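Materials and Methods. Structural model of Phosphotransferase. The 257-residue sequence of Phosphotransferase from Mesobacillus campisalis was retrieved and submitted for structure prediction as follows.
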Amino acid sequence: MEDLFGQDWDITPAGGATGAAYFAQHEEQRLFLKRNSSPFLAVLSAEGIVPKLIWTKRLENGDVITAQQWMNGRELKSVDMDDNRVAKLLNKIHRSEPLLGMLKRLGKTPLQPETLLHIINEELDAEVRRLPIVAAALKFLGDEISHIEYGEMVVCHCDVNHNNWLLAENNQLYLIDWDGAMIGDPAIDLGMLLYSYIPREDWEGWLERYGLQLTDNLKLRMKWYVVVQALTSIQWHKNQNRFSEMDNWIDFLKKAL
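The predicted structure was written out as C-alpha cells:
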C-alpha cells in the first residue's frame, strides 16, 4: 500500500474483520482506502449512499485499491435510528434500480426463503438445536414459509446495525459496509431495524416515513427474517466462543417469537 502513495503519506489500518481497509493522510488530503472492493462501490457512490469514490487503481499483483472521500463524522447511536433520514435513505436504497441492476450484473440472484431455511438447517449444530427456543423458532420458520412470498425483490444491505450508519459533519447520512449485500425481500432490512431499535408502538409511524403500511403480511415477513438472522447469529457467536453475545441473541430471539 505504501508503494502506491510514497513516503509522504501516513497510512494506518482502519480495523474491520477483513483487514483490507486503511486511512491515508498527507497534509490536508485524507482518503479511505480499501483493497479489492466490489465494483458495486462505484454505483453506491454515484447514488450518494456511501462517501464519494475518488479513484480506483490496480496493483501489479492484481489487487484493486479504491480510494473514497474521508468523511469526518460519527456512527449513529441506537437512539438515532428513529431519525427520518434513516427511513428515507433505506427507502432510497430499496427503490434504487441502478443498485439492483449492478448486483444482478455481478451475478447475484434473489435470496429465497427456502434457501435460507435450508442453510439454517445445515449450519445449526445439535447443541443449539436442543435449546427449546431454537426448536420453537425452527417450527415457526417451517410453518410459515409458504405465507411469506413477496414479489418485489430489492437490494438489501443485510446488516443495518447502527454502527454501519455514518452521519457526516455536513449532516449527510451514509450507509457503509456493503460486503454482505443481497437481493431479497425488503423485510430483511426492515425487520432487523425495527425489532432492534424501534418500540413496537412506533413501527407504524416509522414505516409511514419509509413509505409502507404496517400490514399483517409485512409483520409476518419481518418476523420470519428476524428469526432467521437471530438463529444465524446464535450459531456464529457460539462458533467464535463468544458466549455472552450468543446469550444476548437467544434473549433477542425469545422476544421476537
